[in-house]
Amino acid sequence: MLAAGPATSAFAAEQPSPLEFAVLGMHCDACAGRAREALAALPGATEAAVDFASGRGRVAADGPLGRDDVRRALGTLGFEARFGDEPLDSDPLPDAVRARLDIRTVSRGEPVRIKQALAPGKLTIFDYYADWCGPCHLLSPKLERLVLRYDNVALRKVDIVDYESRAARQATREFRLPGLPFTRVFDERGRLLGEVQGNDIEAIETILRPHVRPRQDAERETPATTGGSG
After folding, report:
1. CA nearest 222: which of 144, 159, 153?
2. Which stretches in the chain have pLDDT values below 70?
3. Using one digit for the tens of pLDDT, what is the confidence trace for 153-168?
4. Is 100 helix (H, G, I), strand (E, B) or coil?
5. Is the pTM of this model over 0.90?
C-alpha cells in the first residue's frame, strides 16, 4: 500500500487525475521517504506517496503537473520515474550487444591500477559503483550506451563492494570519493578530463562531447529508448 505524505488532501472533482509511476533506483525504505518528500515539494502537490516494497509512486496536484516535473524531482535524488512500459536509457543493453563493446570490470573491491586499466587510444570512463547502490544500477546502462554510441569510448567498472574495501579506501585517499555512483573520465593520453558524482549522464556527456567520435553503426544497434515528456 502506498503511504501518503503530509501533502495529502481530499480530491475535488475538478482536480486533474494523479500521476502514477514506478520509482527506479531505491534500495531502502528511507529512499522511499526521500522520494515522497521530493514529490510533496512539487508546486501545487496535494498528495505524494511512494511505496518501497512495490516500487510505485503517485502524486496529485491542484494544477498542471507533468511527467517531466516528476522526473526532475526524483532526479535530484538519483532516482527515475517510469510511466507505463516506456523504455528508458537506464534499461540494460541486450547481452549480445554488450558483449561486443569495450566494457570491462577491473575491480571487485581491490585497488585499481588506473594506468593499466586505461583503454589505449580511447576515452576511458571509470564507473565506481556497488551492487547495493540503487542509482548505480540506473547509471551503468547509460554509460554502456555511450560506449555503443561512440567509437572511441571504453568503460571500466569498479565495484567498491563496500566502503571498507581496499578499492574504496584507495578512492577516498586519492580523490576523496564523495559517494556513489561516481564517474571519472580520462582522455586518450590518460589525462583526467573530469569527475561526476551521482546519476547525472548529462554532465558526463558534457565532458565527453568535445572528444568523442560517433560509431557508424550505433543507430542501427541501439535498442529504442525514449526520454518521454508529459
Report:
1. 144
2. 1-15, 218-230
3. 999 999 999 999 999 9
4. coil
5. no
Strand bridging mode 182-186 / 192-197 = antiparallel
Give the CB-side neighbour count of residue 117, counting CA atoms within 13 A: 21
CA separation for the pair 40, 121 (Å, rounded): 48
CB 140 within 8 A of CB 129: yes
Q: Rounded to whole angstroms, how far apart are CA atoms 61 and 108?
A: 45
Lookup result for grid cell 509511476: 21
d(CA 11, CA 18): 10
Q: Are strands 153-159 and 123-129 parallel, antiparallel or unpaired?
A: parallel
pLDDT in tens, 107-134: 999 999 999 999 999 999 999 999 999 9
Q: Closest by alpha carbon to 91, among 82, 104, 101?
A: 82
